[in-house]
From TrEMBL:
Signal peptide: none annotated. The keyword Plastid does not apply. SMART domains: PGAM. It holds the Pfam family His_Phos_1. Its EC number is 3.1.3.-. The keyword Acetylation does not apply. InterPro entries: His_Pase_superF_clade-1, His_PPase_superfam, PG/BPGM_mutase_AS, PGM_Phosphatase. It comes from Dactylosporangium cerinum. GO terms for molecular function: hydrolase activity. Keywords: Glycolysis, Hydrolase, Isomerase. It comes from the Bacteria. This is Histidine phosphatase family protein.
């Protein structure tokens, strides 16, 4: 079994359904212009960091993001099915307003026990916790010592739970914006955010304040 030096966690770029605040789960939505730009900024930030393997969710938005990143890294991309986002079941494609109309009170029940609550016809965080452990087990048996994992925010919380040895509630409190890459040292359980290059302004110049 391989011993990791560093693990990098990236979330897919922003999608059309993210903008519409629709629940994606196992359904998919195309990256927005900003989502593509975020992936390109990931690529720029991750060059020169010794990444030696890319492992990605099978969902299109994650594969598209990993492909853009890999344009700069030139590695093989390994699809790991267990990295797929939580299955949102009957909530897939819905907004919160639609959920409240069709499943009254269900979001309140979810808030009362977010870890064990299961999407109707889908998964719970507890289910995803098991999958996250399986995904990391598979990746650990690959030769990469500094892997990049490209997945999703919800399954990503469970990946962080295992990599950082967090209690479920602590993992559920973590956020992973589209424009952030986490760099994790599995030995010390330290996690830091990698600063991405500033987004360009409409005239093509850097948005960085100097």
């Amino acid at each position: 079994m391989n011993s990791w030096d560093t693990v990098f966690l990236a979330r897919h770029g922003q999608t059309q359904w993210n903008l519409q605040r629709r629940k994606q789960g196992r359904l998919d939505s195309a990256l927005t212009h900003d989502g593509v730009a975020q992936a390109r900024r990931h690529a720029s930030a991750l060059q020169g960091r010794g990444i030696d393997g890319i492992f990605v969710s099978p969902l299109g938005r994650a594969i598209a993001t990993a492909g853009i990143i890999n344009d700069a890294l030139g590695l093989e991309i390994d699809v790991v099915d267990e990295l797929a986002e939580l299955d949102h079941g009957q909530f897939s494609g819905m907004t919160d307003e639609q959920v409240d109309t069709q499943f009254p009170g269900e979001r309140q029940r979810r808030a009362a026990d977010k870890y064990q609550w299961r999407f109707p016809g889908g998964e719970s965080y507890a289910d995803a916790d098991t999958r996250a452990a399986q995904a990391l087990h598979r990746i650990r048996h690959r030769p990469a010592q500094r892997p990049l994992i490209v997945s999703h925010e919800m399954i990503g919380r469970m990946l962080q739970r295992h990599l950082l040895d967090l209690a479920p509630q602590a993992a559920l409190a973590r956020a992973h914006p589209h424009d952030v890459v986490f760099q994790i040292d599995p030995a010390t359980r330290e996690c830091r955010s990698i600063g991405l290059p500033p987004a360009p302004l409409p005239d093509g110049t850097s948005g960085e304040v100097r």
